[in-house]
Write a structure and sequence with these properties.
alpha/beta, Elongation Factor Tu (Ef-tu), domain 3, Rossmann fold, 4 domains, 6-stranded antiparallel barrel, 16 helices, about 20% strand
């Protein structure tokens, strides 16, 4: 007699129902179990578990868990979150009745952990009494407040021309080895003493690169307000997939209690690659030129969780700095354009500028902040309004001048001024400038004080001008700048006078 697969499945289902009925009548909770049929590259196929739900956590032997990803009539596709080499076909799998969650709370600050909350820094277990699901609904539109308060990066070209606000999502993109991570790490370092908690999420990074970042954060005292969540390149794709969602839940805990939080995703190229690998193994259908079809939703549901909450909900904010790697400067590729359309602006780092030694290699013409001056200190607006236009005009004229064209006096002045703007915007890695230091330089730049000195001396002159704020001996002025109050004409003139004296002294010594 030939067994009918439909009859076999029906018999199994009836058997499961009978067992559950007996357990319920005895006052016990039934536990659904199944059997692993296939284990391959971080994916397990499981037969049974008729009641399992999408995204439910599945318990496997050897204390390994997985997430139910594919719910097919005859089997379940589970993404594994541990060492799948310990599993084999025939092992038992059980439902847990809950979704994937992570520990959240104060105990995580200063720790290096993996997406499951397990410590990686050798400092013992993490004790948290609260857990949150890694997948959470983004705040409703009516629960959000406008982005009006700046998040200072300490990098003058960004704070002056492409400002980032608390609650904004600013994409950092560029080719490999152009300084994308350095910009993000500098921003974390600059939050010291500014009451901003930071979360650094490393996705599929080399262990040596992560160790270097953690050592830099420790050396500069930034681990006192930072959580580092790490997945390495040799970790299972499932861990790399859940990493940014887990990090966001950890950050949301602090945002919802009223804190300002900064989260860095380094980088979402590896995240998209991990998800694509899982989708290939699970045989998910492609869509359009994208694979899989929901690759846009992968990042949109993640980044929509970053926002600034209304005062009635605590007024906390979550600022996101996602990083993406481009190939051969192709910012119109599928994944980069997805993220550009999701975020509120982008910082494009040019390999051409990097090779010329113009660091940070921010391409001002291709970078934008869609929040703009609304998330910038008032004192900046009066001195930066013309800088971006002056610089773009300079770049255009500079390209013409390379062809040997003869330029009139006005054009030569624009080029001369633009070269000094570019020189002033150069900053060494992790060398940060305070708000007042930046304003002194920007004022002198806008007034043309650097235009009369040799280009090779501009950087030294700029450093002297930036430190000249100390000569004002005016604590009230510094306080008004930091508290985002409009500078009066006397304040403006006092700063200019000091900058002018410093420049005169510098020229006299030449």
């Amino acid at each position: 007699m030939i067994n009918n697969p439909l009859n076999t499945a029906l018999d199994n289902a009836l058997s499961t129902i009978r067992k559950s009925t007996k357990l319920y009548s005895a006052g016990l909770k039934p536990v659904e179990s199944g059997v692993i049929t296939t284990v391959l590259n971080g994916i397990a196929k499981i037969s049974g578990l008729p009641g399992v739900e999408f995204d439910e956590l599945v318990k496997l032997p050897k204390d390994i868990y997985g997430i139910a990803f594919n719910i097919d009539p005859d089997e379940i596709g589970v993404v594994l979150l541990g060492d799948y080499s310990k599993l084999q076909a025939g092992d038992k799998a059980e439902r847990t009745g809950r979704v994937m969650d992570v520990p959240v709370g104060e105990a995580l600050i200063g720790r290096v952990i993996d997406p499951l909350g397990r410590p990686l820094d050798g400092r013992g277990p993490v004790h948290c009494s609260v857990r949150l699901p890694i997948e959470r609904m983004a705040p409703n539109i009516m629960d959000r407040a406008p982005v009006t308060e700046p998040l200072q990066t300490g990098i003058m070209v960004i704070d002056a021309l492409i400002p980032v606000g608390r609650g904004q999502r600013e994409l950092i993109l560029g080719d490999r080895q152009t300084g994308k991570s350095a910009v993000a790490i500098s921003t974390i370092l600059n939050q010291r003493g500014k009451h901003v908690l930071c979360v650094y999420c490393a996705i599929g990074q080399r262990a040596s690169a992560v160790a270097k970042v953690v050592a830099e954060l420790r050396e500069k005292g930034a681990m006192e307000y930072t959580i580092v969540l790490v997945t390495e390149g040799n970790d299972p794709s499932g861990l790399q997939y859940i990493a940014p969602y887990a990090a966001t839940s950890m950050a949301e805990y602090f945002m919802e209690r009223g804190d300002d939080v900064l989260i860095v995703y380094d980088d979402l190229t590896n995240h998209a690659g991990a998800y694509r690998e899982l989708s290939l193994l699970l045989k998910r259908a492609p869509g359009r030129e994208a694979f899989p079809g929901d690759i846009f939703y992968l990042h949109s549901r993640l980044l929509e969780r970053s926002t600034h909450l209304r005062d009635e909900l605590g007024g906390g904010s979550l600022t996101a700095l996602p990083i993406i790697e481009t190939q051969a400067q192709n910012i119109s590729a599928y994944i980069p354009t997805n993220l550009i359309s999701i975020t509120d602006g982008q910082l494009y780092l040019s390999p051409a500028l990097f090779e010329l030694g113009i660091l940070p290699a921010v391409d001002i013409a291709k970078s934008v902040s869609r929040v703009g001056g609304k998330a910038q200190l008032t004192a900046y607006r009066s001195v930066t309004s013309s800088l971006k236009l002056d610089y773009v005009q300079f770049e255009e004229l500079e390209s013409f001048s390379r062809f040997g064209m003869r330029l009139d006096e006005a054009s030569r002045k624009i080029i001369n001024h633009g070269e000094r703007i570019r020189e002033c915007f150069k900053q060494d890695e992790f060398f940060l400038l305070s708000v007042t230091e930046q304003l002194m330089v920007l004022l002198a730049l806008a007034e043309g004080y650097f235009d009369t000195i040799e280009l090779k001396d501009v950087h030294r002159a700029m450093m002297q001008v930036s430190k000249s704020i100390l000569e004002l001996a005016n604590a009230d002025l510094v306080e008004r700048i930091v508290e985002n109050k409009k500078l009066s004409t006397p304040d403006h003139n006092a700063m200019l006078q000091v900058a002018n004296l410093v420049m005169q002294h510098f020229r006299d010594k030449q």
